[in-house]
Design brief:
This protein is an all-alpha fold. The chain has helices at 12-44, 51-67, 75-114, 121-131. The chain is 72% helix and 0% strand. The longest helix has 40 residues, at 75-114. The protein is elongated.
């Protein structure tokens, strides 16, 4: 049976590392929601972050693009496409950082729980030998 006080076994480094990683995860989750729109607007030259303006602007610019026979985007459509490219690039970078933080956190937690109250190898082999008696062995016909 496991010892309930064994969870307090990891030292100060473990607790500090877990606290820092959890704080980083919270910050990255908030950044995943709030930052991409602002970063994309700043880099693409768009001042407005209003979704309605983006939709209306895209519809107007895309209709103009479809009516012309040119393969190149108009200036307005190019700005909108650049905005959405930067938006999704920011989301991808933040998601990658968040994945790394969760991976490091899972490794720390895995190592902490893998060292808790593991029975010695001899005790496990003796108990497994007692369970596997000749009578309980399956018969092959």
């Amino acid at each position: 049976m496991s010892n309930p006080t064994a969870l307090s076994r990891p030292g100060g480094f473990f607790r500090t590392a877990v606290a820092v990683l959890v704080a980083e995860a919270i910050v990255l989750i908030v950044a995943f929601v709030l930052a991409p729109g602002r970063l994309a607007a700043h880099g693409s030259g768009m001042d407005s972050l209003d979704q309605d303006d983006l939709r209306t602007g895209f519809r107007a610019e895309f209709d103009e693009y479809r009516r012309t026979d040119e393969a190149d985007f108009s200036t307005g459509l190019d700005t909108i496409v650049d905005y959405w490219f930067r938006y999704h690039l920011a989301k991808a970078v933040i998601a990658t950082l968040l994945l790394l933080v969760f991976a490091m956190l899972s490794v720390l937690v895995w190592r902490a729980f893998s060292t808790l109250d593991t029975p010695p190898v001899r005790a496990r082999s003796r108990s497994s030998a007692a369970v596997r008696s000749p009578r309980s062995a399956p018969r092959h016909r």
